[in-house]
Write a structure and sequence with these properties.
This protein has about 70 residues and is α+β, with helices and mostly antiparallel strands. About 65% of the residues lie in helices and about 20% in strands. The protein has one domain (about 1-65). It has helices spanning about 1-20, 35-65, and strands spanning about 25-30, 30-35. Helix 1 (about 1-20) packs antiparallel against helix 2. The longest helix is centred in the C-terminal third of the chain and has 27 residues, at about 35-65. Keywords: Membrane, Transmembrane, Transmembrane helix.
Length: about 70
Amino acid sequence: MRKYSIFISILTLIFGFTFYGEPVSIQIFNTEYVMAAEVLCFAVWLILTLLIQAINLKRYFSRNEA
């Protein structure tokens, strides 16, 4: 499972440098949010990394039941 975390990190790093300084606008409920693209890439990286770690933790605890 470590290879997936490394793969996601490399992909996010590539996209972060590719879109560095680009503004991204997101509209939610008639409110427009403008943020930097690297912030969005970091948020995606963080969510995917936490999801993978949660899946690994669930597998670890279900494997070691008494």
